[in-house]
Predict the structure.
Amino acid sequence: MSTTTTDTNTFDAFDASCPSRRLLDTIGDKWVSLVIAALGTHGRMRYTELSTKISGVSQKMLTQTLRKLERDGLLSRTVTPSVPIRTDYELTPLGHSLLETICHLKAWAEAHMRDVDTARETYDQQRNPPGAVPL
Amino acid sequence: MSTTTTDTNTFDAFDASCPSRRLLDTIGDKWVSLVIAALGTHGRMRYTELSTKISGVSQKMLTQTLRKLERDGLLSRTVTPSVPIRTDYELTPLGHSLLETICHLKAWAEAHMRDVDTARETYDQQRNPPGAVPL
DNA sequence: CAGGATCCTCTATGATACTG
DNA sequence: CAGTATCATAGAGGATCCTG
């Protein structure tokens, strides 16, 4: 066993090859979670539907994100060579399992984000007392 | 009711104020997960211990990350004004709960990262057939 | 419609030097 | 020791134009 991070009890993502590290690299991406969430909520979606739903995303980022997720096997891409071409994206079973995992995060957020906000306010007030002189 | 993302079943981080969105902004940070993991593994640690353990992190990033996590109430910072000053960092209960959540991610990674790797190989081989002419 | 290719601009981060 | 402040840079990401 050694100190490899593949052991169930020694997770620390210091090893760049540790799966948990690579997962963080994946879901840490700003758009990945949004695409997963969109497809998880709406099922099969077309390229334009995604770009509309995820307002603010550029073509470049959307395409780049979709390609990455397709490569990782998290979603499937189906091209229909009709007159105006049509492309559909859909979560694979693997993608759905990640969606569920993300929902665990959501549960934590819903349970504790209030605490985080309170902590922030307390911290900010201590560093920015009422009598502080503005620049 | 409504489309608010605070509902348990309608998680989509499209709303920037959605807790799940802000959580992703937090754990998506490259160093956050490493600091949490380090403190989760070793308990109380000094500044230098952290910078040693998390090899490759700059002073700037480490300090910045620690401040952010302290502000969010995920870790506590204890300064001892001894001769050479001493500062200790430790996960708060809130920080520990996030550590547990991150472990859920780890579980997913360990269970499915092989599938992701396989998907990547398949994808790459299809786009880079053996007969492809290099540039 | 669904992208590919470019250019360009910030921002995040690293390196360095200084301090209580 | 544990930072703060400053400068420099790579790379992420946006805007734009073009095409099957």
